[in-house]
Prior knowledge:
Beta-carbonic Anhydrase, Chain A, 2 domains, zinc, 13% strand
Amino acid sequence: MSQDLDELFSKNRDWAAAQEKRQPGFFTRLLGQQTPQYLWIGCADSRVPANELVGLLPGELFVHRNVANLVVHTDLNALSVIQFAVDGLKVQHIIVVGHSQCGGVKAALAGARLGLVDNWLRHVQDVRDQHAALLEKIPEALRVDALVELNVLEQARNVCHTTVVKDAWGRGQSVVVHGWVYGLHNGLLQDLRITAAGPDDVMPAYQKGLERVARRYLAEE
Ligand SMILES: [Zn+2]
């Protein structure tokens, strides 16, 4: 095994020992069950470590990550995660988290050709094309971050439109969908306030979210 990977095992042993020292019995308690309150749907980017940046321990956050934090209606992977989180774990909150200067969003905006991933990023390009009129009015230097936010709004809305979430709301189960953005430059989360706790919240929250993005980015012209 290479030196680099040895280091990972060594760090892992240190981490497990420190965790057990802080909270004796930590790992054996988790063996019994996981009861996370939150499902995090974020970007695969290595600079956005889900648990770490909200200070949550193993067992406290259910996580799904992919390039550009997409929720595609036919993606069985994401849909299965959402179903297990809602039906099995009964999470209270589903949070779609984008991040500033997202490489996937940047590539989609520019129409870069990177290979297989272009097909995945086509979904972000659909968001770009849907909001082309707004994006054109935003100064070029700010467009990536504006599209990051627009993408979060669309993906949060996609979560609301899944059969899993619609069925949960239909039977009166409490699940709130949110859209946040993480700032790579300062490590801070920002709530885009597309917050939906039921089917009637979805369109108004989405519309208001859109208006806020437009106001914020056009004001900086
Ligand atoms: Zn990203």
